[in-house]
Design brief:
single chain; mainly alpha; 75% helix
Amino acid sequence: MFGAYRILLALAVVAQHLGGLPLSGVYAVFGFYLLSGYLMTHIVQRTYGYDRRGFMRYAANRALRIFPAYWAACLVALLLLVLVGEPAARSFVPSLYLPDSVGGWLRNILLWFPALEAPRLSPPSWALTVELIFYLAIGLGATRSFASAGLLAALGAGAHALALLQGLPWEFRYYPALAAALPFGLGGLLFHSRAWWQPRLRHAALPALALGLLAANWGLAHLRRDYFDLHFYLNLVLCALAVATLLAAGQRAGPRLRRWDAELGALSYPVYLLHYPLALVAIAAGLTQRGAAMFLALLPLVLLASWLCVRWVERPVERWRARLRPGNNAGSGAA
């Protein structure tokens, strides 16, 4: 039952990038990291295991999940850059332009932006590089036990503490992969502590309460900029609460609700990838300023393009992903 939550996080990113709503995307990215920490720990523990064969299946499955839709978004960006022109694109998103070197093309093809390298045909893809790093780390055992997940979270917390003590800008606690060890480690801790919290979070009203508190924290962060650090770390606590309560609620959900939730969740990744490239459509139409008008004008197009990406790219690839899962007869002879 994480589908609605995932699309909420994706739309929060869009609201910042196209709607000019500050900080919502920052908080949402760390929410994605924490959710990924939980889910990746879960699937490695329950589906793939930690032996060599399991790791190879897991890595191939993750690659098929990340790269096809990402490459499709890059093709959309290339087409729109040719049609709209690089100067207009760079005036809106400085990192969105055509690669001018072999290294630039390779970074975009391989999705490798550890230091926010530009250009990025899908500008938010730097966070996917972080995701790939931790997919690898989790597959190799970074959150295999409660202790190892705690160590990962402590490593991230240490990076945050060091940045705070040195008085560095908040970006040093957001962009580096080491800073993301905190939410990924917390996601792993959430998985290993589920036997304690699951029986205590079964009340039907708790998911709505958790999401309401999360949204309220985002709103207060915009009004109280001097308390950025408080809201930034409170966001992690509330994201963990949202994941825990949604997981408990999912055990009671019927098949129809699960199906609708899955359909919503499927849109979240293409929405994240495509919203910046599709902003070039608005720029070509003369809508060049971030704000409610741009957000509302582009949202239907972003959702439509995301649905097409799910239908034409992700669903066909899902058949190959299913074959990689252990226990799938079709996949047992294919890996």
